Structures are given as structure tokens and as C-alpha cells.
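User: My collaborator sent over this chain with a note saying "see what the structure looks like." That's all I know about it. Can you take a look?
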Amino acid sequence: MIKLSDTILISTDPDTLFAWFADLPGHYRAWHPDHVSCRYEGAHGLRAGARLHAEEYLHGRLHKLRFRITRVAPSSLVEYRLGPGVRGAFRAEQGPTGTHFTAELEFGVGWPLLGPLLDFLLERLFSARIDAVRQHMKEEGVNLKRILESAAPI
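Assistant: Without extra context I'll predict from the sequence alone. Here is the result:
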């Protein structure tokens, strides 16, 4: 599995952070300049089974993404799947000076022997695209910090 992760300390509490995520369609375009649109399909809100359709530019190309939320722990975790072999999570952990927000993305297969070989090939063939996704995740963290700290510092 190829695992990407970005963590940033945000001067807010986990409840405020997850309240922001609860209205992700309303905040999506402000979160990152490459974000185009986001909407719920059917059931709304941060709950298992909810589906989101999002459009954003990654590595210079428009991507249409369908997220399915698979697990939610209030104010601490949202896990999602994008499709076969692609999953991610948003995690929040309260610290003494704010909330450690972590965005995670994993893709690939966990098969013995073949999985590591496929990961190696993916990393070699798509290294520039993987680096662009990694940079996008970092920018989202910085932007989220700016948005939440300017709106409601603790």
C-alpha cells in the first residue's frame, strides 16, 4: 500500500473542526483553490454510508471523485473509500494547544508479494502525480488551519 499522510496543529477544538467538515459542500471551494464542487448524494452529513461527489484539480487535471463515508467517530475520525484499493481518513486528536488534524490517503493492494511489486511500479510510473497529491494534502491542511483559526480561535 502507498500511504500518504499530512498532520497539522490547528488552534481549535475537535468539535469545531468536525462541525466544519459536517458542511463540507458549503466549505469545499474555500478549502483549496483547486476545489471545484462538492455535494452529497442522498443522505447528508458525516455518517457512515453517506456519499459525496467532488470535483477538483489534481496534477493539472480535473478529477470527479465519489467518496463513500465508511466510519465516523464523532469529533475524532471520518474514514472513506474512493473506490477499489483507495481509501482515506481525517483524524483529529486534541492536544494541549489545539487539535492535531491528520489527513490520510492509501492506495494499492495488500496482497503478499504482488502488492509490494505493484506499489513499486505505481511509485515509479506515477511519482509526479503522487507528489502532486501529497502537496495538495499539505496545502489543504495549511488552508484549513488558516480558515478555522481566523474564524474561531480557542
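A starting point for your reply to your collaborator: The mean pLDDT is 90.
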